[in-house]
Amino acid sequence: MTSGRRPAGTAAGSRSPAHGFGDDEATTKLLRSRPPRQALAWAAAQLSAPVISARALRGGMSSAVHLLITQPPGGQRRYAVLRRYVRPELNAEEPDIAAREARALDVAGSAGIPTPELLAVDPAGTEAGVPAILMSRLPGRVEWWPPDTDRWLRRLAELLPRIHATPLPAPGTLRPFAPDPQDSYRPPGWTRQPRLWERAAEISRGPAPDLTAVLVHRDFHPGNVLWQRGTITGVVDWQAACTGPAVADVGHCRINLLTAGTDATDRFTALWQQATGTAYHPWADVVTIIGFLDDLRDGWGSERLLVEDMLARAVAELGGQAAQLRSQSGPQPWLSLPVVDSQPGRASRCAGVLSPTRARVAPAEFEAKGTRAVVSAARRCVEPFANGCRLVAVAGCRWPALRRWCRW
Question: What are phi and psi for residue 196, nearest 5 degrees?
């Protein structure tokens, strides 16, 4: 899945088709059909042997990927992977995509993990018919529904620091990280919180936090990790690789993991924080989700609500929720405050919105009653939808006394 395209999965918390495994007829014809003779002839010339088999590899949506088998007369079989960029709109948008992937594969070769070896590239498609990459085949298969989910998440989380420890290439080799531009930044029609999406778009298009630049895969999720007998055997699909903050990969994986539910997303994040000793930055959630905004307008079924909840929590943690609420509240912006709750072993989240009406506190009493009364009102207000979590903070408030963690 190329960055900026729809992430894996079609429904949360159920065994729905993972990304690239629920093809419609048009997708099957475009991406899974046998490569044309011109492309196979180019591959055969590069591998110095005729192609005797070409099998479509499922799981991707931005390009056609096939496992090729070649065999010279009287010789041994050889395996290679052919990727062809066959989507005209993608080639028009990113005409250098094959050349970029070739450079990324060279850089990834120095990572401390198995990655495909670049065998040949036709950047403009003059010989293969479309821009194309030929690379070595890695053993293993994609695993979306492992028998031991916690072990699977831990291995994924511990893999990222190894990628991010790769020495950076010379400037200009890879592009710097940048949010994926959208055709429109208007909120999706199904949203319950249009102001939230508007504020999130502002954050995404605004200045990025000052974070250390590392090698970023940019499309890291379970569909690009290969496994064999419970062991990771490689990471594929490096065409979007760039230099940027490590949390960009974490955020991208988080939204893809929603197909396994929010518990898996939170657990993955906690394991990554444990492996790196670094706190996750919610800016990455905002940038990732807004990077899917054009696709999110198509619906996404019930998963869209999980995406929106993730976005709400990230904006609240960034302090942007207060700005969003101010624009909704009119002349008395402090009357609505985001309420954050926490549960042992899980990250804090935005549980809802505190308002004088819901808390049964008159506007003037917010000023007069002081911190203790307001926090008590907040607790009463949030309990109906906190799912048993214990309220531990009121965030985004203009009063310093309420901006700190308030426990009881």
Answer: -60, -45
